[in-house]
Amino acid sequence: MGKHFISRYLYIFYCFVFILHIINVFLESETMNDTIGWFALVMLVVSFAGASRLFKILGMAFLFVGGTVYLTAGQSIIAIPSLFTSNMSLLVLLSMLPWMNSVVKSGRFDKSLNSLLHVNAKDLGSLYPRSSAITLTLASFLNLSAATISQDVLKEQLQTLKKDVRDSFIGTSTLRGYTLALLWSPLEILLAVTIFTTGVGYVSLLPWLLLIAGITFLLDSLWGRFYYRKYNYRLDREVNIDKKALIKKIAHLLLALILFLVLVIAIGNNLNLDFIFTVTILIFPFSLVWSIVMKRFKSFWTIGWRTWIEKTNTMQNFVVLFLSLAFFANSINDTPFLLFIQQPIIALAEYPFIIFVIIQLIFIGLSMFGVHPIATIGMLSGIVAVLIELMNPLSLAIVMITSAIATLTVGSYGLVVQLTSNNTGQSPYRITLNNLPYALIFGGIGSFVGYILL
């Protein structure tokens, strides 16, 4: 009973700590930071019971290694709580994302865009780029929800096809379109973590990430068009689409995204705030004003409040991961352990492309064993500190974000692959196998662009 009560109202405690952190970003008080550190320790303990087994193992590993290194280095025990606060901004960002998701749903943009999937196409080859592009557009705002929405529509539409063909089509078109949106979306947590780790500005990254997304989308669309064009299908009924209204919806959504990006850049530059924090504090007021302009405030608030509470109450996995990761990263700084793990990379400093490929393979390899890409970034954080001194940080950031995002299509135990497996009834290993060439090519394009920019 007590455990259920705590999990039901966990959002209140989380929200209290997050507000303290936001206030301290402006105050920059060491005393308040120490206080937040103690609250972070309580968050970690409370969240541990609700975390999944995998995240418990990762959290315990980071805490054990970080604690061992920290204590053997003779550091002060009193300073330990303050080591848990450096990733708090990422948790605050994660808690705010449901509000943007809710305003898009309240405006019914998801339903309007997915109506395009009902329009007749002569074969699966011509439907492939369309389904990928629609998932991409939705994912820019809806993140994980975009993939499941598109999959549900395609499942219904492709009922007459053989199951293996239908599953293959859904597992490739939706997951790949989904990743291409996350690559550059300011709302994607993996992008935020990469920026946080490398210190590279979002404005510097954006044009190159858009270029990579564009190249990858074109190559994948060509592949899908040729690979699936041998499969014919037809709908049971004719579907009439109001093209004018649909174009207005798409233009509205794109205009909102551009405006959000402009505001993030302008506010961040004028107030000298970092990218992650600027996105975090802008999401709610932007979503609120947008819902009022659309005259959808009531549905926005109803959807948003319920979704925010639900998502915040189930943040235990990320609380355990981010807080333990912060302790690990801060504990190993300036210690012999850090030098030990950096030596192999320093030895390959004259061969940056090999380093890029190794980073890509580490991300993909660990994802297949269930390691979240955020945890992989944490494991590489000590190496990143050295690489930034040896090469262009922009190149490194590009390689890390493309490698991390690519894993979302092949992580057999990852959330999006597992959801796709549940939606289609196919094995997650089959999804991984189908998308492995794409993940390698996607990451390879990122490595190639990164190498050119060195």
From TrEMBL:
Coiled coil: none annotated. The chain crosses the membrane at residues 9-27, 39-65, 77-100, 175-196, 208-228, 249-269, 275-293, 314-332, 344-364, 371-388, 394-416, 436-453. It comes from Oceanobacillus piezotolerans. Keywords: Membrane, Transmembrane, Transmembrane helix. This is Uncharacterized protein.
